[in-house]
Write a structure and sequence with these properties.
By secondary structure, this protein is α+β, with helices and mostly antiparallel strands. It has a single domain, classed as 6-pyruvoyl tetrahydropterin synthase/QueD (Tetrahydropterin Synthase, Chain A), CATH 3.30.479.10. It has three helices and five strands; from the N terminus they run βαβαβαββ. The chain has helices at residues 23-30, 63-78, 97-114, and strands spanning 2-14, 39-51, 81-82, 118-125, 131-134. The chain has a five-stranded mixed sheet with strand order 3-1-2-4-5. A hairpin with a 5-residue loop joins β4 (118-125) and β5. α2 runs antiparallel to α3. It is elongated, with a radius of gyration of 16 Å. The structure holds the ligand Nc1nc2c(c(=O)[nH]1)N=C([C@H](O)[C@H](O)COP(=O)(O)OP(=O)(O)OP(=O)(O)O)CN2 and zinc ion. The site of the ligand Nc1nc2c(c(=O)[nH]1)N=C([C@H](O)[C@H](O)COP(=O)(O)OP(=O)(O)OP(=O)(O)O)CN2 has 9 residues, from α3. Residues 14, 33, 39, 41 line the site of zinc ion.
Length: 137
């Protein structure tokens, strides 16, 4: 079993706020992150795939292919976007890093399985000090 990772970066705006709560409730739970004025992060995304090396190619999967699907199905949809408003796969979800990691997993898992490899983890740094890792359901 071998693991390879594609790193990608994106910039996105969000706020942590439930539409069914009052502003006061949101502020109590989410603090400054519930501020109605949007704020943004320079996110770092790590998509890790696992499987066996193809003895003919020497590849687990082609990293160019991993870059292309990560960009097409994730980065192009969220870079310079508002996670609360603009992103189809985040609709109806609180824009936390946890929910974003699960949503990105759901975007990629079947595509990667079709290649014969398996998605191992989605890791997202929201800030330099805060990151989330998701290993599937
Ligand atoms: N469990 C979670 N908690 C928080 C999330 C989250 O996605 N999941 N997100 C946030 C906010 O988005 C916030 O913008 C994070 O900022 P902050 O806590 O200020 O993080 P920093 O790394 O910038 O703070 P330092 O104090 O400099 O470490 C909050 N919580
Ligand atoms: Zn934030």
């Amino acid at each position: 079993m071998i693991y390879i990772t594609r790193k990608a970066s994106f910039n996105a705006a969000h706020k942590l706020s439930r539409p069914d709560w009052t502003e006061a409730q949101n502020t109590e739970v989410y603090g400054k992150c519930a501020n109605p004025n949007w704020h943004g992060h320079n996110y770092q995304l790590y998509v890790t795939v696992k499987g066996e090396i193809n003895p003919e190619t020497g590849f687990l999967v082609d990293l160019k292919w991993l870059k292309d699907i990560t960009n097409t199905y994730v980065v192009d949809k969220i870079d310079h976007k508002n996670l609360n408003l603009d992103v189809d796969f985040m609709k109806g979800k609180l824009a936390s890093t946890e929910n974003l990691a699960v949503a990105i997993w759901d975007e990629l898992v079947n595509l990667i399985a079709e290649s014969g490899a398996q998605l191992h983890s989605i890791k997202i740094y929201e800030t330099e000090n805060n990151f989330v890792e998701y290993f599937g359901h």
